[in-house]
Amino acid sequence: MSKPNYSGTFHMVDQVNMDSYLAALDINFALRKIVCLLKPSKEISHDMATGAMKIRTLTTFKNFNMDFTIGEEFTEDLRPVDGRTCQTTVSWEGDNLVCVQRGEKDGRGWTHWLEGDKLHLEMRVQGIVAKQVFKKAD
């Protein structure tokens, strides 16, 4: 059975527990407050044939780009986010994209899944879970 195509532009419509998640990443108070006010968009391009994926997280404050091939480990530069790098692998678990980020923080990673026109994102670190929901642009 083929995997879902995550390509598209999505705009955030809901966010839960982001401040606690950012605190677990040692993000300072002022920056956490700014990030929690942002309404990011995601632009995703997904090559179904090769597994190559590009995720662009866009905000009025700062943008973040993540380019990878599903199933291949790579060094992810998270210095713009929290000053760290980590070894990252994004794999399929059913129709979900599951990311494991090995580095200084235990249990770090995220899961993306699609439900209708919604893109869900669950972010984890050290037992703290934050969630965001994005709606696909028309």
From TrEMBL:
Its recorded name reads: Cellular retinoic acid-binding protein 1
At the top level, the lineage of the source is: Eukaryota
Q: Where is the Lipocalin/cytosolic fatty-acid binding domain?
A: 7-129
The family database entries (Pfam families) matched by this protein are listed as: Lipocalin
Keyword terms, alphabetized: Retinol-binding, Vitamin A
Native organism is Perca flavescens (American yellow perch)
Query: GO MF terms on file?
Result: retinal binding; retinol binding
Q: Does the keyword Transmembrane apply?
A: no
Q: Briefly state the protein's biological role.
A: Cytosolic CRABPs may regulate the access of retinoic acid to the nuclear retinoic acid receptors.
Q: Which family does it belong to?
A: Belongs to the calycin superfamily. Fatty-acid binding protein (FABP) family.
* InterPro entries xref list: Calycin (IPR012674), Fatty_acid-bd (IPR000463), ILBP (IPR031259), Lipocln_cytosolic_FA-bd_dom (IPR000566)
